[in-house]
Design goal:
The chain is mostly helical. The chain is built from 7 helices and 2 strands; from the N terminus they run ααββααααα. It has one domain: Fido-like domain (Fic-like fold).
Length: 200
């Protein structure tokens, strides 16, 4: 199965190498995937150990996910990207505006999340909104999808549910997933809500 988290194009350097410069001196794609996978696995266990009913999912928490996962791999772990990025011709928000954009995301959406949900429907709607917005903002140079999936899982586990079945999103369905992310530009979260419900 093709690797779904391939590097995005950067307008400043369209000919970049597949493996980003890293702290481990890794030069092969298989080795960097393994190092990243191990980092995210350990981070998810750490986050589960500290998760409580009062855990707050804000931008600081999102940056913590990224830092815990990649601190042994990249020197930019936990930091916003400094380059502009595209995917299939779609331009993500410009890097220089990320501090303002993430602050707005924090205040408008993340800080409004309740500690307790009385319905699964409202929980899935909020997970979808957060997931779509985070992937649309694309705050990090690498691993935005994996950070967003860990966050979605933590939001579900906090309410007593299992991890979401992201593995059910096949290569064929991945196009719909990307469209759902792009819909967040217009604050349209219905496409992502449908996807989250299907894997909840």
């Amino acid at each position: 199965m093709p690797y779904l988290h391939s590097k995005y194009e950067t307008p400043e350097n369209d000919g970049q190498h597949e493996v980003l410069p890293n702290l481990l001196g890794i030069t092969t794609i298989d080795a960097i995937h393994k190092a990243e996978f191990e980092g995210f696995l350990k981070a998810q266990y750490q986050l589960l150990d500290t998760l409580t009913t009062r855990t707050i999912f804000d931008m600081a928490y999102i940056r913590l996910i990224h830092e815990l996962s990649l601190c042994k791999v990249y020197d930019f772990a936990g930091q916003f990207r400094s380059v502009n990025m595209t995917k299939g011709g779609f331009l993500f928000p410009t890097a220089k505006f990320l501090p303002r954009i993430t602050h707005d995301f924090d205040a408008r959406i993340l800080k409004q999340l309740p500690h307790y949900y009385s319905s699964e429907e409202q929980l899935t709607a909020d997970i979808a909104k957060v997931h779509a917005e985070l992937l649309f903002i694309h705050p990090f140079r690498e691993a935005n999808g994996r950070v967003a999936r860990i966050l979605a899982n933590m939001m579900a586990v906090k309410q007593g549910y299992d991890f979401l079945a992201f593995y059910k999103i096949t290569q064929r369905q991945f196009k719909d997933y990307i469209i759902a992310v792009q819909a967040a530009a217009d604050e349209n979260y219905k496409p992502m809500t449908q996807i989250i419900r299907s894997i909840f």
